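Q: Second attempt. The first request was missing the SMILES, so the protein and zinc ion are both included now.
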Amino acid sequence: MFAEIFGIVIAGSAAWLAAYHICNMPRVFTKTASNPGPHVVIVGATHGDEQAGFHACKRVIRLLSDRRIRLWRGPVTIISAANPCGMLLDTRNMPMTRLDVNRSYGTGAMINQKLESHVDKADWVLDLHEGWGFRAMNPFTVGSAIYYGETRASMDMAMALKNKVNKMIQHDSMHFVSVRDRRKDIPIGSLQAYANAQSKNYILVETTGLYNAQPLAVRVEQMVVMILHCLDLLGMLAH
Ligand SMILES: [Zn+2]
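A: Got both inputs this time. The predicted holo structure:
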């Protein structure tokens, strides 16, 4: 009897450890062109219930893998699921530990250390999230906005991405706006704070997605258009 219970406990612990290990492994894809160029790191599904980023990353990975778009220069690292178990279970935080991955940069959390190892090497960071509301209509919401880092290049990129994506959005009230957050408004432990502290070129995209305000396909398309336009403006795509 004791041996049986002991066996179940051991098996349960092993399963927990295996799941813990898997949940702390972000899904990472890297492609490197033969010509040197800027290193772009794209991060999706940090919050597991903001799923457009995951699907947009997968779409861009497929386009690169099928060579329907070709990388001309530089490496691109695409982290489709920064919080893989949250993404699978549709939860904002990591399911087992309740860790908010986007409040845990610089804290030594295992998953953040792995993400930081990529971000530290980046010249550009694209951080894909989903919010609610339309910022153009309501300044107290975060949806449909592009937040940029503290470099001049980040601001210029945000403007360019905004102009590009807004061409596909009919109503002005649903247009993306570009915003530079005040330092005191940027959450501690977020990728935005972490990237700013290193003077990275940084773009945070927030679609209007929470509570299914817009179909997933619309949000994914918006993100894909912005990702590809960013790579194109950096001269990374072959034509
Ligand atoms: Zn988020």
